[in-house]
Amino acid sequence: MKTQVKALVVGGGAVGTSIAYHLARAGWDDVMLLERDELTSGSTWHAAGLLPYFNMSYATTHIHDYSIKFYKTLEEETGLNAGFAVVGNLRMAQTDERMDEYMLYASTAETCGVPYTFMTPDEIKAKWPLIKTDDLKGALYHQTDGYINPADVTMAMAKGARQRGVAIERKWQADAFHWNGVAWEVTVTKMVEKGGNLVPSDEQVVITAEHVVTASGNHAQRTAKMLGIKMPAIPVEHTFIVMDQDPELVKWRADGNPEHPVVRDADNESYAREERGGWILGIYERGAPARFEYGVPDSFRADLFPLDLDRIADQYMAMADRVPSCADSGLKDDFNGPICYTPDGNPLVGPAPGLRNMWLAEGFSFGITAAGGTGYYLAQMMVEGEAEIDMASLDPKRYGDWMTTEYAARKNEEAYEHVYILHHPDEERPACRPLRTSPAYDRQAARGAQFGHVNGWERPNYFAPLGFNDHDSRSFRRGGWWQHAVDEAKAIREGVGLIDATAFTKHLVKGPGATAFLDWFTCNKLPSVGRINLTYALTINGTTRTEYTIVRLAQDEYYLVSAGAWTAYDSDFLRKAIADKAPEFGYIECHDVTTQWGVFAIAGPKSRDVLKEVIKDADPETVLSNKRFPWLTMRNIELGMVPVRAIRVAYTGELGWELHHPIEMQNHLFDLLEKAGEKHGMKLVGARAQNWLRQEKSYRAFGNELGRDATPLEADLPRFVDLSKDFHGKDAMQAHGIGSKCVTLLIDGPDDADPWGREVLYHGDTRVGRLTSGGYSVAFGKSIGMGYVKPDIAVVGTKLKVKMFDQLWDAEVVEDSPYDPKNATIRVDG
Length: 830
Description:
Residues 7-381 form the FAD dependent oxidoreductase domain. The protein is of the alpha+beta class. Helix content is 26%, strand content 29%.
């Protein structure tokens, strides 16, 4: 057994074997995989093996697409049949709203080149007469996916890995991880059989590995404990049952008819596929419990839980209604096993927080579907520095240290039961809320705030009359909240609005080395003292890693503001970079001060008038003037009794200020501003209106237009890139070139809907790009969007089409910042 390797993969399920295979295929010739039991002995062995394309995430769709295509090649390479039955996937809809969901998904799938067709109930009945269709509105059909044998595909990947030089060692358990400064020293213990249990022996070995990948499945909590990190990967019970033979199905196949597709009855929370003349029925029901919150018992191996038939009785009966010929089929077998989940249902893939060369691949609820693509894209990250797609939405650091076991377990249960609940783009799930609240939360709730959930924080999405039901207002079109957001957007364009932006991520960076470090770390020139700049930290490949507003407080002291959803993600990258460069640049301190500062953003033509009512200054009439407080500057001011770090900038593109204040004084400041705003008609405004307004100004958003799959130059932001200096990622950015370009579009869409930022774009009959943001423009009275297109298409006046609800709608590329392109309103004096 080797004791020194380039990469050690811990976990021998489908995900782990895929990662080992793809690392070897990417050129690493010294890879080892460890499995504490036998390959596939975790969740892999009892997985149903379905390969659904369906996912609302751009990155995850790419991952699933790669897997499905990759699995079809394994037999030719390895000689092992992976058991892939390409029967297709039929996703049925009983309601118009479900069809709306499928049409939004289909446009997203189209951006990735995933094939699909829509079918009517009559077409379904004609093709598969055993399926009852009289209550259906239609279906989405993926003809290229189906199901696979999980054990077979894992063994095929394992054989392919061995053929490429990977060492696979079974019955070895990782028991300790130690970073020696240059590599990981992993203590592993030989596991032996004893009384039917798998127990550690006295034989131990220390393996030195430059890189470690954990793909420990249900054992993720044990892994997290050994690494000293938090990881919200906790299993939830998932049940599928095997039914006795269906005589009509047997006859159907005997007559020479093809196998049925995987049949997904989303409105009945179930899926079904053929199995030896009968049916497998899988359910995503309410009430399935999380298991192994604190680790898997030593006695639990390739085991299952007792079947809770009462919990799935409704879905069982619904299957008999959907396929009436199976009504008399008995229950042949059942599988109720642990499947790992995360709070948002997406896996944790990428660098571990706070650790070097430690990579996580955990929390896979659809592990068979995702295994192939995860191995491919994670290998790219490890070998090349970044993947070709933006993997941020799967990054483990999207959850911070505020996350607890209780939070993860309850949210994972919620994610499980939401698999087949309508995935509205404006959905806000209720479990474990409210948790992180700013002091003004109760005041805003009392004024009708309808909150969203961002990195654990409660943040107003919009304000409505008391008693308004946000859940019932959700839609794939313009929901019941839409008019409230319109009114809020108009208030900022025409009067004044107040936005709670407390969730912003905030870091303080200071010390003798701070200036030299930030000059290297970001691509724009640094501001002078008292001024601010918008800038970007790049990846090693020259793409956008983080967007910062940098406020220079003193010669060597900086206040960095970034997106609220990415606090741990930004903090980890920043701290690791500081640790790397401090020996070169000098002593640097970095403090996460997110929870120390509250933020209100006040914006609109009357915002200066409101602030004048409460500002304390020797000359309150001039303190907010362009002369004393120019655009893109910071001033320490006093509003009533509150010391405020005021920044003259507004994400809405209007005259405005961000008011950063000691968080313990927030309620006093809120009351002060609310009272002062009364006579000026000030309106409380939520994130949805703000999102629409920033698109009118073509302000890019991190996670939408900005990410690790595009450079700042592709985002069309050359004014924020100082090519006269050296900075991290500069050479790679320039070598990358312009593969696509960010544009703003005005869209003549449906009368009752706006784009969500997931839709495909066409130029004539050619697919040329995709939207990354979408919404409604109050300034232009029509839909608006931002997105990426081929560079030759990114020309003002180009006519495009955007696909919404399975139709193509007219769109036009417009100049950047179509609202107030000269920034006259932002700079207005007073």
